[in-house]
Amino acid sequence: MTTEIMNIGQRIDRSYGELSPQEQRAADFILDHLSDLAVYSGTELAQRSGVSKATVSRLFRRLGFENAQEVREHARSLRSSGVPVGGIAPGASADLSAHLVREVENLRRCLDALGPERLEQTTSLLVRSRSVTVVGLRNSYALALHLREQLAQSRAGVHLAPQPGQTLAEEFADRDARDAVVLFGFRRRPAGFGALIAGVAARGVPVILIGDASARRYAEFAAVWLECPIDSVSALDSYASAMSLVNVLASNALAARTRESRTRIAAINGLLDGLGELE
C-alpha cells in the first residue's frame, strides 16, 4: 500500500512506532479529531495537542504531506468520498438539531429532484416490466433488500441480486428490454460498478439508477436517474432520504396495481396466518 492511496489515519498507524513522543501526542489528537481536521490550521493543531508548531510540521512531513493545507484538502476529499472520519467524542452529546436540519434538507432535495414525471416513469417500469431485479452492493444492499421486500407485496417476479454464491452475470443472462433493473449505487462502490451498469444497459434492460451525486457519472446508462443526498453532520453517511425514496416508489407501485395488489396481499396474509410466521 503506497502513501498516495493511504488516508491519514492509515499513515499514522503505519508510522506510529517511529514517531517521537511529541509527534505521537499530535498524532493522537489528529486521530481523535479526524472529523475536524479539514478546518484546523497547523497552529491550531499544535495548540490543541499541546506541542510546538515545528512538531506538527515534522509529523506532516513524516506522513507524506507538504503542509497543513495539504492535510486539510486530504481530509475534505476523504469525507466527500464517504470515508468515515472521526465522529462524536466519547461522552459527548450529538447535535440533534443540526442532524435534523441536514436530514430534512436531504429529503427535500431528493423529492424535489424526483418530481412527478420521474416518479411516473419509474413507477411504470416497476409495474409493467416482466420482472424487476434489484441490485445493491456494499452499503446499498440494505436499501435493495428493503425495496425488493416492499415491491414483492404488489407484484411477482421481483428478484434481489446477487444471490449468495452467485455472480451477477448469472442473474442477467435472460434479462432483456421486457425487464427492469433497479441499481443502487451509493459512494464507495465496488470497482466493477461501471462495467455492471454498462453491461446491463447494453442488453437493452432499462435501468433505474439510485445513488448520491457521485453516481451521476453513470446516469447515461440509466433509463431513470434518481439522486439521493446522503451528506451528514456526523462521520457516517445518512441513508434516510434513500429509504424514504424506497417507500415512495414501493407505495406508488402498490397504488398503480390496486386490484392485483389486494389479491396478492390477501394471498400472502393467508399464508402468513396458515404458517404462523408472525405474532
Report on the structure:
This protein is an alpha/beta fold and 279 residues long. It folds into two domains: 8-81, Winged helix-like DNA-binding domain superfamily/Winged helix DNA-binding domain (Arc Repressor Mutant, subunit A), CATH 1.10.10; 96-275, Glucose-6-phosphate isomerase like protein, domain 1 (Rossmann fold, 3-Layer(aba) Sandwich). The chain has helices at residues 8-15, 21-32, 42-49, 53-62, 68-80, 96-128, 141-151, 168-172, 193-202, 240-256, 258-275, and strands at 132-136, 158-161, 180-184, 207-211, 224-227. Strands 2-1-3-4-5 form a five-stranded parallel beta sheet, sandwiched between helices. Helix 2 (21-32) packs across helix 3 (42-49). The chain starts with 7 loop residues before the first helix and ends with a helix.
Percent of residues in helical segments?
40-55%
H-E string: HHHHHHEHEHEHEEHH
- Oligomeric status: single chain
CATH class of the largest domain: Alpha Beta
Work out the strand percent. 5-15%
CATH architecture of the largest domain: 3-Layer(aba) Sandwich
Would you identify the CATH H-level superfamily of the largest domain?
Glucose-6-phosphate isomerase like protein, domain 1
Q: What Rg is obtained from the alpha carbons, in whole angstroms? A: 24 Å
Structural class: alpha/beta
Largest sheet: 5 strands, parallel
State the total count of DSSP E strands. Answer: 5
Can you tell me the residue ranges where pLDDT is under 50 for at least 5 consecutive residues?
A: 86-93
Separate helix tally: 11
